[in-house]
Amino acid sequence: MATALITGASAGLGLEFAWQLATAKHDVVLVARNEERLTRLAAQLEAAAGIRAEVLVADLSVRADVERVADRLRATERPVGLLVNNAGLGLNQRFVPGDLADEETALALMVTAVMVLSHAAAGAMVPRGRGAILNVASVAALLTSGTYSAHKAWVRVFTESLAVELRGTGVTATSLNPGFVHTEFHERGEIDMTAYPEIAWLNAEDVVATGLADVRRGAVLSTPSLRYRVLSAVARLAPRSAVRAFGRYRRSFQGQETDAPTVG
Prior knowledge:
Belongs to the short-chain dehydrogenases/reductases (SDR) family. Pfam families: adh_short. It comes from Cellulomonas humilata. The chain is of the alpha/beta class and 264 residues long. Strands 3-2-1-4-5-6-9 form a 7-stranded parallel beta sheet, sandwiched between helices. It has a two-stranded parallel sheet with strand order 7-8. Helix 4 packs parallel to helix 5. The longest helix is centred in the middle third of the chain and has 29 residues. It is globular and about 50 Å long.
């Protein structure tokens, strides 16, 4: 089985990716900032699944750390056959009065790191004639949820473009586009999501299972759950003026002065 490298592996969807891939007998490379969490997770995965789990502590908003992860993707020993670009964050602030340094951190993490790591992975995989890149975007890519939407729109279009370029090489690129998911994501961003009904939420286990199944069949776009596929279709077909109006209504409905992401 190929080795899988997962960013943001210490919590949320990244943690679920690690467990599902390890259970499927893939060796894993776990990337995140929290060394204690990663070390504990690696021990659990090795004990439960009998696979090899490497720990690579890195802050992917720091370019030097991104390059260390890129070097692991380029390595010929225990080559990485699946890259999961999952690391992300939510900013609980509006853009204009917000902290620009925080915006630059988010951009580096969710755009620059995805580009650099995808370049390193594809560059190593194409000569081997096999491999896969899974970039976690969001249904928010189709909406107007501040810079989070902009970042995820970039990930989605970039991944589609990469898939076109990789056609015929044996390497695939998939954009995973979930909606709200029960993880630590919103809690870590101090984003109040209590206004949203339970029906809007997805389970991390189902999201990850769908994403990995779509990678296996070579799908370019993966949107877990029928309700979010319908929402995505509506958002694509609706006039952009209507999408922008929905964004204004959402902020009013929440009673928040924030451009925090509405979907994970």
